[in-house]
Amino acid sequence: MNFLPIIKELARAYQEFEGYSSAHIRGLGLLPVQFDVIATLANQPPMSFKQLGEKTLISKSSLTGVVERMVQKGFIAIQENPDDARSHLLKLTTKGQKTFEKVFPDHLKHLELVFQKLSKKEAKEVEESLKLLRTIFTK
Question: How many whole angstroms separate alpha carbon 46 and alpha carbon 76?
């Protein structure tokens, strides 16, 4: 089986999505990694660095720097973890929550502009195909 065309199309699709999405996020005044963190922490109880890393697309090596810069900008607060003195919990500040409430709905509308080009059947087929593809890589 020649699977290279699948890999090529998957990579191209991701690159196109990332370019479309990132340009809009930057236009809203955020970096894509900042948007990812804000969207992950929004409306959630405080979480550890480890939990945040598992729920975002940010590499573990980059996460600490991203979080530190977001703390400096007032988007995130760090608090002690009452269950584990060795770790800290992260949560959005009021500024971070307000930013989420402003940018998240706007970004969803931006993405909807392209995803509405798919019929409901096509959207479901794409979703199922991507799920199948993901499962072949999971242990």
Answer: 10
79: closest CA among 90, 68, 70?
A: 90
- With beta carbons less than 8 A apart as the criterion, state whether 7 and 65 touch: no
Give phi and psi for 79, each to the nearest 5: -130, 160
Three-state DSSP class for residue 79? strand
CB atoms within 10 A of CB 2: 5
pLDDT of residue 87: 86
Alpha carbon 108 to chain centroid distance? 12
* Measured distance CA(111)–CA(126) in Å, rounded: 16
Token duo for residue 80: 């002690």
Position 77, amino acid: A
Low-confidence ranges of the chain (pLDDT < 50): none
pLDDT at 29: 95
Contact status, residue 77 vs residue 86, Cβ threshold 8 Å: no
Cα gap 56→52, rounded to integer Å:
6
Measured in whole angstroms, how far is the alpha carbon of residue 10 from the centre of its chain? 18
Asked if residue 37 lies in contact with residue 77, where contact means CB atoms within 8 angstroms, the answer is no
